[in-house]
Amino acid sequence: MENKVGFEDTSMVRYRDAFHQLNAILVPGDILYSSKGWSTFLVGHVGIVGEDMAIHHSHPRGGFSDTLLGYLSRHKFGGTITVYRPKTGARKAANWAQSNITRVGRYIFHRKLDNLYANYCSKFIWQAFWYSDAGDITDRGLTATKKSWVCPFHIKQSLYFEEVARINL
Which InterPro entries does the UniProt record give (predicted)? Predict the structure, then answer.
């Protein structure tokens, strides 16, 4: 997009660059962690790449399956998207997330880990790995019958994932 004097809008350039960098490396099961900021309610945000290459995530308006560009557009400039790759179980978790995202009904910080309807972003990621038999990715001894919070930083700090890319918006 060009402005009145013929220069390309720098915000569009950033999104386009981030899109091309991420699009070249993403595989099903990758986790996209968005840095803390106003657009992520100061706690960060996480989504998972499905087999369909959509980013599946729980959002204040429910469960979403966004294109990569759509997902990027939800995050403000100056932030960072970090890609974490599971060491095992990526495809099964990607399939589970893709198949169950429509079961997310409300964005509520609900502590019952087996509740899919009342959900939030990092809990949904935890569920994708738990219900696809990968186990507790936080290594905190969590099970579906427990009541606990799973925060984006638990995903970010998990030894279950390795960082494969960091893109500045």
Answer: Papain-like_cys_pep_sf
Residue 89 has pLDDT above 90, yes or no: yes
For residues 51 and 94, give the distance between their C-alpha atoms in angstroms, rounded to a whole number: 6
DSSP conformational letter for 79 = -
- Domain 10-168 superfamily per CATH: endopeptidase domain like (from Nostoc punctiforme) (3.90.1720.10)
Q: 């939030």: which residue's tokens?
A: 120
pTM: 0.85
CB atoms under 10 Å from CB of 2, counted, come to 9
| Coil vs helix vs strand at 108 | coil
Q: Given this model, what pLDDT does residue 68 score?
A: 87
Q: Tokens in use for 144?
A: 């579906």
85: three-class secondary structure by DSSP? strand
- CB neighbour list of residue 50: distance below 8 Å, 6 or more residues apart: 28, 56, 65, 94, 95, 97, 98, 101
The helices-and-strands tally (H runs, E runs) of the chain is 5, 8
